[in-house]
Amino acid sequence: MIPEGLTFANRFDGVTGSAIREIFKYLAKPGMISFAGGNPSLAALPDTICAELAHDVLLADGKRILQYGATEGYPPFVESLSRYLSDQYGFDLELNGVLPTTGSTSCMDLLLKAFLNPGDAVLVESPTFLGNMQTLNLYQARLVPVESDEDGVRLDKLEEAVQKYHPKLFYVIPSFQNPSGRTLAAGRRKPIAQMAAKYGFLVLEDDPYRDLRYTGEHLPTIKSFDTTGHVAYMGSFSKIISPGLRVGYVVAQKDILRKCTIGKQGTDLHTPNLNQAIVDQFLRRGLLEPHIQSILPAYREKMDLMLQELEAFPRGTSFTRPEGGLFIWVEMPEGFNATRLFDRAVEANVAYVPGTHFYPCGGHHHTLRLNFSNSTPEQIREGMGRLRRLFEESL
Amino acid sequence: MIPEGLTFANRFDGVTGSAIREIFKYLAKPGMISFAGGNPSLAALPDTICAELAHDVLLADGKRILQYGATEGYPPFVESLSRYLSDQYGFDLELNGVLPTTGSTSCMDLLLKAFLNPGDAVLVESPTFLGNMQTLNLYQARLVPVESDEDGVRLDKLEEAVQKYHPKLFYVIPSFQNPSGRTLAAGRRKPIAQMAAKYGFLVLEDDPYRDLRYTGEHLPTIKSFDTTGHVAYMGSFSKIISPGLRVGYVVAQKDILRKCTIGKQGTDLHTPNLNQAIVDQFLRRGLLEPHIQSILPAYREKMDLMLQELEAFPRGTSFTRPEGGLFIWVEMPEGFNATRLFDRAVEANVAYVPGTHFYPCGGHHHTLRLNFSNSTPEQIREGMGRLRRLFEESL
């Protein structure tokens, strides 16, 4: 009950909180094996390195780190991050600037704050990441799903939707998409950047999984084809260093970035300096690349194991075979209901995310998302066995 | 130039960025003595303690700290903070909950997100903190200034404005107000909580300076008189531990806090665990109170020195004599223009914040805000001398 006479803002109409964050509550149950969430493996989190780096940076530059920082970022980190982005990604840092953020959720928040009025159309892949759908809903966006296939969003459907809805933004996750695990084909990337310039909308390229590639080669980002400022790139160190540190960044055309910076003055003033300084040390000491290489084999092994377990699932089960990332997307035969079955899965001590939560318009109850990174091989074997038996019974 | 075809959101109409953050750009000038800003003294920032605490918590609980955390906060910190708030502040944690935030700017953002629709009336003290005015403007609030006197906001003017404007919120800084340095009188606090319950609006009690008291006794918070949930309390460790760590908190009625939590899922997902864990250790190890006691004498000495320097200012200068906090408010004789004089002050290597920026409707060019915490006694003597000579010349 809200205190008498008070009313909440309209932006909360119909927003009830993240389904995944609600699901988390069940996961504390003893014996639970969770394929919900998108957590990195605990083994992949560099706690002793971070302990040393935190200690070092606070002794070396503690006064600056503990004092108010610039909204534009902790200067040494802005420098090392810019170098990293121009070396690794080839981003043009004349047209664009870089803004460190408090995780990539905050990139999304700042970009939506900069651009969206209530009712503005935003195109999204279907399915797409439910966390950012909630962020979009809080800005009262009109979400328009665009059909995807195994190569990511379909260009014909995208252009059709652009012509019909005149969107302000198109939100896309190009690498090992959340939730589908699919990667946007190389050949579709430049056309998306061109379409944005032609029709005058902004692409929000959300790319937190890019470095978790287990097979194949890195693809050029959509942003790398952007010569006009119509693509904003959202990066994150959550999946390759630590999500708990909350360090992400936006790369965007300078006037867009300036609006994000002004918006950020009103959300958290600046991203904590200590967290930026720790990531800065990963970059400066050359720790990032070896760390990523050290975590990839176990992730790949887990993914392969989960895929292998899926082979034994009932006839009619189909699933993606990602080249990286954290998720496998499963489509069960029509009639199967992963949403309804969720409670029974929790009873059987195994959890997933029902696929319906990833669709702007719901439905698709025969789909589900599985995460493999946050379980041990033994848990994957055992948990997938539980799921398989449950699914067999229910068909 | 914004890329072709794109348009920014209406919420940015007329919002140009924080005047203080703009002023900061001038402060890098060699020899500059700055009484602008509201930075703690560098000497007061506990860098070696934080280095040790960061190292300890990452070794002791590093996997949990580096993993995704709960939006509701890092559990040990929620526990120690709740105990601290109920011991030190007497807050009723049955009616209310506590939400750790990424600095107190983010408290403001989350509460406005929870409540404000564009055009909603919000009452503010006049003058008030310009940073949060910007945050209010980004939510397209209709700001209604309420007259204050030496005891803080006037109750008759407040009730008049409530009856006339039916505000959703009243934003107030009760202790050593920013910018005025004034403290809301004890006798005005309970009536404000009662008025909020009677008329059905929410008081946002922003209280980051409370523990920086140099004389007199702590006053009860407005929140301590709230029995109905009509007061939300915004606290911060920025002024007593470190602003760069960005750790603040909201204490609010549980349904209000739930909306803030859902909003926070869409802004930064959660406040970084490491930063919460460091503050947690300050509380658990009993380091906070001795640390506060250790920084107060130097702050008091600086304030007294600045007040003494102000005595020599031209006849007709009046100024507040705060019991704590970081700021002294100066009113020069009518006709004096602190806004216009700012550039000449910067030329003379001394900076302040023109008072006009703290008024929702501008004007008041004869006023200015001085910060004493971030300068040495020598800088205060020298800088106040420069200001005095400049002011004398210009009168």
Rg for CA atoms of chain A: 21 Å
Structural class of chain A: alpha/beta
What string gives the helices and strands of chain A in order?
HEHHEHEHEEHEHEEEHHHEEHEEEH
Strand content of chain A: 15-25%
Specify the helix fraction band of chain A. 40-55%
Count interface residues per chain for the largest interface: A-B, 92 and 92 residues
Q: Whole-Å distance between the termini of chain A?
A: 42 Å
Strands of chain A, count: 14
Number of helices, counting only DSSP H or I runs of 4 residues or more of chain A: 12
Biggest pleated sheet of chain A: 8 strands, mixed
Oligomer status: homodimer
Given the C-alpha coordinates, what overall shape of chain A results? globular
Structure description:
Two copies of one chain form a homodimer. The first copy, chain A, has helices at residues 19-24, 47-66, 75-88, 104-115, 130-138, 155-165, 189-199, 254-265, 273-284, 288-311, 338-347, 377-394; strands at residues 33-34, 96-101, 121-126, 142-149, 152-153, 169-172, 202-206, 231-236, 248-253, 318-319, 327-331, 350-351, 353-354, 367-371. With 395 residues, chain A is α/β, with parallel strands linked by helices. Chain A has an eight-stranded mixed beta sheet, sandwiched between helices. A four-stranded antiparallel beta sheet of chain A has the order 10-11-14-13. In chain A, helix 2 (47-66) packs across helix 9 (273-284). Chain A is globular and about 60 Å long. Chain A starts with 18 loop residues before the first helix and ends with a helix. The model of chain A has no long low-confidence stretch (mean pLDDT 96). The interface between A and B is large, with 92 and 92 residues.
